[in-house]
Each structure stands twice: as structure tokens, then as C-alpha cells.
Design goal:
By secondary structure, the chain is mainly alpha-helical. The chain is 43% helix and 8% strand. The chain has 23 helices and 13 strands. A three-stranded antiparallel sheet has the order 12-11-13. A two-stranded antiparallel sheet has the order 1-5. It has a two-stranded antiparallel sheet with strand order 2-10. A hairpin with a 3-residue loop joins strand 7 and strand 8. The N terminus is likely disordered.
Length: 544
């Protein structure tokens, strides 16, 4: 008999005395056939998987320590006085090692999720309702693909476990990276074929993964495989079905009220229903925030990200809150003046006090989005550009059209309709850089940038000393002017035609690899030492 674990079954026992209870013979035994054979048990098994999506190891330190902090978008942002600073900062400056706990947590959190999936998949065949059975299997296979995608991007080839293991099966050698990706594709393909759409799920099941979610994640998997034809296919299916759409306003997209937005395809929590409060602090929220105000500030937007936005881009204001800025419903925010604390914080996790349950900053009902529709549009644009055969290819037009949808939403999120001009570049190499930068700012602080740099194999991006650019408007006499330029309104400077540019180094903070170089071993993280030391054949990744 297979072992079923990690599921908590609540039962009520009514008895008049201890002796009565002890003298009563067992009336039956709850087996997996009984438990999973009925709708209630099957749903409990599936919902256990969803519950893992809000675990500490997936949306706390491990998430931003692995997904964000190592990139050029983020800094540790906290203070050396905090006991966790040195450990998290080691991921920021690439001095981490096999003992770093975030790597252990990421491994544990994702394999725990895989375990929940395998428990369900090993037992759902007994479910009597055929439609519910297929939907349940599709959800479990989707998440198994999701968890393995997290692992393979981080570590490369890992142990491939697709069923509940007996004690004598625990020692699993590493499968190849190719085998892991094939399992991911198989699982997600099944999910894409068998999951309902958002409309088919209905309002009562909002938050569950859908056909579009599976297709969107498949597109991302193929993006990492550089199979651009498949990226275009699956992202195109999401787009053509019309199951998802861009939210009307970029800042509002991250509001607690927008969890069920048409743009959100996969988020960190499952179903809060009509209740907008939460009784438990969000690990995603509380470890960010503003050092010295609310939260811990462990994932701060970098100076490099700050300078990556085009002038007037509303997404900068929606993503970064600055020291001394007035936050809606709160007032002026003052950051702690101490070493390590950066003058910027992730604004996507910061909302007025009306959204704080029990006046607790960490109990905001806002969410980490793993996949949203803008990402799908940008993946499609990238694929079209890579597949295009010359600048006159209609695929370039398709790429530019999808890119414009993302930029237009950003443009309309602000007060100035003249910002973010349409992109007309058709050269493949130049358009590639434009699309990559658009991904950087559109998806900023959402856990995409580091692995984008990894899949690009952009060691040069890590090693290059980054610079900002001051742009000065000049009058007709070549003199720098600071007056606002809004046409020929009285007292304001006319639209300028001459500019001066001044380059400056970004050095707050300096990056380890700017002076020490980028080591190729960082393309893969080390396996946790605790796993290697178990002696079941796990060989440490090269260089570690």
C-alpha cells in the first residue's frame, strides 16, 4: 500500500468517557481508495498543492534570494545589523556557497510541492467523477511541471521523482537536464490539453490554473530551450483565445483588489474569496517593504533598474518608492539611515493602510505574480523577432505590435500620452535588446530578471560596469535649461531640439563581478550540501 503523507485529515470524535472510547472497536479504516475516490478528498489533495504556493520556501527569502537579488535589478537593501543580511547579501554579491540556507530552502520547497503532486497523481485514478478526475490530474501535473521548472533553471539536472517513493527508493541519482525538461513539457502539455479555460472554471473557481496558464508556462519553458517556434505557438494560443488581457492600469495591477485581474495567470495564493483580509503575514511582503518604516527591505530596486526606464515611464513610479516619497494613505516615508539600506523599495508590495489587516503591513492581501499576460506578449514578440528572416519579414510587424500593446498600457497608466514612443526598429539584434529591456522594466521585481540574464548567457552584462546618462535640454544658444518644456506656453521652454549627454558610473553599490569577473559556474547554483552529503549519488555542480 502506498504511503500517503503531508495531508491533514480532520475528524471529530464524540465520546462520553475515556473508557468508552478505548473499549470501542475500530469501525473502519480510511484508505486512499476511499479518500481520493470522493470529490471532497480529491479536492483536499489538490488544494494541498495550491497551499504550497504560499510557503516560506517559495515566496520568502529563497524566492527573492534566488530569483531577484542576484540580478542587476535588485540589491539586498537591508542592514548588516540584521542577522540575515550577510546570508542574503552573499547571493547579492555572488559570494554564496553550498551551505547557503536559501538554496536549501528552495530545493526543499519545490520538492515538497512535487511530493504533494505525486501523492495526488498516484491516487486520483480511483476518483469516480471522470471529469473531476481529469481536471484534478491536469492541475497536479501542471504544478509538478512548475516546481521542476524552478529546480532545473536553478540547479540544472536534478533527481527526477514522479511517484510516491518507498523507503528503499529514496536515493535517486540526478537525471539529465534534458530529461527534466522533457518531463516538464510532458506534464504541461497534458495540463494544456485537459485544463478548463477561465470561463469554463467559472467565478467560483477563480485562482485555479487554466488552459492558458499551462500554455503560457509552456511558452516560457520553450523560451529557455530557445525553441522559438514553440514559444510562438503556445504564446500565440493564449493570445488568440482571448482568455487573458492586459489590466487597464499598471500600478493598479498590483493592488490587492486586482488579484483576479484578467492579466493574472498564476499567483502565489489560492482563493481568498470575497474576504479581502488575511490572518497570516505574507512572506513575500514582509521581507521587502521599507527598512525603518514597515518590512525589512531585503529586496530593494537597484540604481541600475532605476536608470533603465525611459524618461516619463509610469512604470518607474509604480515599481519604485523613494526615500522621502509621500505614500498614498500613509504619508512621507523615511528610510533608515544606516549602512546597506538603499534609498529605494519595491512599491509593488506597498499599499495604503486600508489594505492592511489588523494594521499589519505584512498582512496586505497583495500577491506575487509568477505569470501574467504581459509576459506572454513579450515572449511572443521575442519569438517573432528571433524567427524573422530579414527586416521586411511580417513577423517583425507582429513582434512590434505585441511590444506596442505592453508599452501602450504603460503609457496610458500615466498622465503624459507622449511618453514611450512606438518602437519602429526592425534590425534583429537591436530589436532583441529593446525587447529584453522591455522585459526588464515591465516585469521588474517579479522574479524574472536573473533567469533572463542566465538564459541569455549574458556574462558580459554582469561584468560590465554600468553607467547612467544625464540628458540636458539646451536652448537655441546651447545653454542648459531646466524649465519645463510643454510647447510654447508662457513661461515654459519650447520643445528642445538640442541636447547634451553626460555619462556617469553607477556605483551604489558596486557589484562583485565588476571587479572580479563573472564565473561561469554561476549559471547554475550549487546543490545543497545536505543533499550531496546524503551519499545517494548527487554530484556537485561544476566549480562548487
Amino acid at each position: 500500500m502506498k504511503k500517503i503523507y503531508s495531508l491533514l485529515l480532520a475528524s471529530a470524535l464524540v465520546f462520553t468517557s475515556c473508557s468508552d472510547f478505548l473499549d470501542t472497536k475500530p469501525q473502519g479504516k480510511l484508505t486512499q481508495d476511499i479518500f481520493f475516490g470522493e470529490e471532497e478528498g480529491a479536492l483536499m489533495g489538490i488544494n494541498a498543492i495550491y497551499s504550497q504556493m504560499k510557503s516560506w520556501d517559495l515566496i520568502g527569502f529563497s524566492w527573492f534570494g534566488i530569483m531577484e537579488v542576484p540580478s542587476d535589478n535588485s540589491d539586498t537593501g537591508s542592514s548588516p545589523a540584521d542577522g540575515s543580511y550577510a546570508r542574503v547579501n552573499s547571493l547579492n554579491d555572488f559570494t554564496y556557497d553550498v551551505y547557503t540556507s536559501e538554496l536549501n530552502g528552495w530545493w526543499t520547497g519545490n520538492y515538497k510541492g512535487i511530493g504533494f503532486c505525486n501523492v495526488a497523481l498516484d491516487n486520483l485514478d480511483v476518483l469516480k467523477d471522470e471529469q473531476l478526475k481529469i481536471r484534478s490530474i491536469a492541475q497536479a501535473r501542471f504544478f509538478r511541471g512548475f516546481f521542476y521548472f524552478n529546480l532545473v533553471r536553478t540547479y540544472g539536472g536534478v533527481p527526477l521523482v514522479t511517484k510516491v517513493q518507498n523507503p528503499d527508493e529514496y536515493d535517486q541519482p540526478c537525471a539529465s537536464e534534458e530529461a527534466i525538461y522533457q518531463q516538464i513539457i510532458d506534464d504541461l502539455s497534458y495540463a494544456a490539453m485537459n485544463l478548463p479555460t477561465r470561463d469554463e472554471w467559472g467565478i467560483a473557481e477563480r485562482g485555479r490554473v487554466t488552459k492558458g496558464t499551462a500554455e503560457g508556462l509552456l511558452a516560457k519553458v520553450y523560451l529557455f530551450r530557445q525553441d522559438y517556434a514553440s514559444v510562438k505557438q503556445y504564446a500565440g494560443q493564449v493570445i488568440s483565445r482571448g482568455e487573458y488581457n492586459l489590466h487597464h492600469n499598471y500600478r493598479d495591477l498590483f493592488s490587492p483588489d486586482s488579484y483576479y485581474s484578467d492579466e493574472v495567470m498564476l499567483a502565489d495564493q489560492y482563493l481568498w474569496g470575497s474576504d479581502k483580509t488575511r490572518d497570516k503575514a505574507s512572506e513575500y511582503v514582509k521581507w521587502q517593504g521599507v527598512r525603518g518604516f514597515k518590512g525589512w527591505g531585503f529586496c530593494s530596486p537597484s540604481e541600475s533598474l532605476d536608470k533603465a526606464y525611459e524618461s516619463g515611464d509610469p512604470r518607474r513610479e509604480a515599481t519604485i518608492i523613494y526615500d522621502g516619497e509621500n505614500m498614498e494613505g500613509v504619508g512621507v516615508i523615511n528610510f533608515k539611515d544606516e549602512p546597506g539600506v538603499q534609498p529605494r523599495a519595491n512599491k509593488k508590495t506597498m499599499w495604503p493602510t486600508t489594505y492592511w489587516n489588523a494594521n499589519n503591513f505584512a498582512k496586505q492581501n497583495c500577491h506575487l505574480y509568477f505569470l501574467r499576460y504581459a509576459d506572454v506578449l513579450l515572449m511572443y514578440a521575442e519569438a517573432c523577432n528571433e524567427l524573422a528572416n530579414g527586416e521586411s519579414d511580417p513577423l517583425v510587424d507582429d513582434a512590434l505590435a505585441k511590444l506596442e500593446l505592453v508599452r501602450d498600457r504603460a503609457r496610458k497608466s500615466g498622465d503624459d500620452p507622449t511618453v514611450l514612443p512606438k518602437i519602429t526598429e526592425r534590425n534583429k539584434a537591436k530589436l532583441r535588446e529593446i525587447i529584453w529591456n522591455e522585459r526588464r522594466i515591465e516585469l521588474a521585481m517579479e522574479g524574472h530578471r536573473f533567469f533572463d540574464l542566465i538564459r541569455y548567457k549574458r556574462a558580459d552584462r554582469f561584468e560590465k560596469q554600468l553607467h547612467g546618462l544625464f540628458i540636458y535640454r539646451l536652448d537655441d544658444n546651447g545653454v542648459r535649461r531646466d524649465l519645463p518644456w510643454r510647447g510654447n506656453d508662457e513661461g515654459k521652454m519650447a520643445y528642445p531640439t538640442h541636447f547634451e549627454y553626460e555619462k556617469f558610473e553607477l556605483n551604489n553599490p558596486t557589484r562583485y563581478w565588476w571587479t572580479n569577473g563573472f564565473d561561469p559556474k554561476w549559471y547554475l547554483s550549487p546543490f545543497p550540501s545536505t543533499e550531496v552529503n546524503k551519499g545517494y549519488g548527487l554530484v556537485q555542480n561544476p566549480g562548487w
